[in-house]
Amino acid sequence: MNLVFDALLALALLVSAWRxxxxxxxxxxxVLFILFGLLLSLAWARLSAPxxxxxxxxIGAGLTGALLLDALRGGKGGR
Amino acid sequence: xxxxxxxxxHLFLLALAAALILAVLDLPQPAVDLPAAxxxxxxxxxxxxxxxxxxxxFRGYDTLLEVAVLLIALLxxxxxxxxxxxxxxxxxxxxxANPVLQTLARLLAPVLVIAAGYLLWAGGHRPGGAxxxxxxxxxxxxxxxxxGLLPAWPxxxxxxxxxxxxxxxxxxxxxxxxxxxLLAYPPDLAGGLILLIEAGLTxxxxxxxxxxxxxxxxxxxxx
Lengths: 79, 223
Fold this sequence. Notes:
By secondary structure, chain A is mainly alpha-helical. Helix content of chain A is 90%, strand content 0%. Chain A contains three helices and no strands. Chain A has helices spanning 2-22, 26-46, 50-78. Chain A starts with a helix and ends with a helix. By secondary structure, chain B is mainly alpha-helical. The longest helix of chain B is centred in the C-terminal third of the chain and has 28 residues, at 190-217. Chain B starts with a helix and ends in a 6-residue tail after the last helix. The A-B interface holds A 50-51, 54-55, 58-59, 62-63, 66-67, 70-71, 73-74, 77-78 and B 51, 119, 127-129, 131-132, 135-136, 138-139, 142, 146, 209, 212-213, 216-217, 219-220.
């Protein structure tokens, strides 16, 4: 059961990373990046590193995601 | 015409990935058994959680320099963010049309502060610590900013400046007060000193991480 979950998680990580890089729309790329960060923090938790999972969820997904969304909005407003 | 170079790049990347995977599978055994060394000295560190012991005691240098790097990064961001003249009031009231977001932010901010305090305290004996607590504080500040309840920080001054550097200076002060060597805490005071450093770091890192967002948030309104 755990193995199935881990395999799905690894697959979802790869797919979301690939989609975030390959999608032509910046909005979608940012949302996929946040999704990738959340999945990555799950992966850290599964690797029994809750410290890193917490930091990844808060900084990697949350703060960086907010910064990217802000940059997106700023870029559109400036153009 | 373009298909051939593309294929070559893909093949090269596949080969690189294969080489990296093989290299990871073939990693040699570490020469020093660090987990055992940490576990053996945990009693002297003043905290019960090995990660906190490594970050704040055994490898305190790394953490001290990390905090300095983050502060310098924020200084860089602040120095390139353009000051906005007379637009702060307008900027502040921009998102006031969203009462749901504002109410949510008002409700969540105190919870996040409490959670940050818990993580800070928990760092001594279970997963948690200053960085995670600071990230939660920063999240609370960014949320308040996004809801339009906080003004941007194009130019931090006064109390804010003090808060930004306090963590680093508390850390440096404790490091310099150590017996003989830098960052050598007296063993019987180590727990209290680590908590003091972590409390300072939580506030400063929270403000620094939030500042990375709030310094630029002002830039958007600039013409």
